[in-house]
Amino acid sequence: MAETKEQEPLQQQENQSTMFLIKIMSKRRTWVFLFVSVYTILFSISWNFLKTVLSWYESTMSNSTTSASAGWPALYASVLLGVAFGVLSMVAALAVAVPATLVTWITILVLLTFAGKPRRDLVLEGKKLTADIIGFVVKVLIKEGNVVAALCAVLGYFALVRRNKDDRVVDY
Asked: Rounded to two decimals, what is the model's pTM?
């Protein structure tokens, strides 16, 4: 008896904290705050990575004495920048794609329900639909990330090589 009386306040505290968490997470401003926070962190990380790669490139170029070896550090730096911005674009696209995909998935399941599908068939169709949608979203995200990465790598390479040539012209 004494144990159940001690457990009741503990269960009430757990229920209250769970209800408070559910209430907080149901607010739109909470999700906006989380969204902005995640993107701020991603932007900060990518900005710091960009500064690190550029400082590495500058230190490599200041130590390099021959113009023949000037292209390799630019290539490495541009590939690193391309990969970073490709991944960043995939994360950004994922944040947009997930809600749209969820709405599509729910709409299709509701339409199948109204079409008179039995519950078992609906569950099977839902599993197939989930796998198809996830596969399609992953393919699109990888394709988009690769395009952005390649574009950023090419632009970065030419910008770094041009910057290096401009610095050498000024030095002479």
From this structure: 0.57
Tens digits of per-residue pLDDT, 11-41?
A: 777 777 777 777 776 777 777 777 778 778 8
Answer whether 45's CB lies under 8 Å from 51's CB: no
DSSP string across 122-167: HHHHHHHHHHHHHHHHHHHHHHHHHHHHHHHHHHHHHHHHHHHHHH
Which parts of 64-118 fold into alpha helices (H)? 71-114
The yes-or-no verdict on residue 65 having pLDDT over 60 is no
> With contact defined as beta carbons under 8 Å apart, do 102 and 60 qualify?
no
- Please, which pLDDT band fits residue 104 given cuts at 50, 70 and 90? confident
Distance CA 81, CA 46 (A): 9
Query: Domains of the chain: which residue ranges?
Result: 18-62+72-116, 118-171
Residue 10 CB-density burial (10 A; 0-12 exposed, 13-18 middle, 19+ buried): exposed
**Tokens read off for 55:** 């400082």
DSSP 38: H
The amino acid sitting at 123 is V
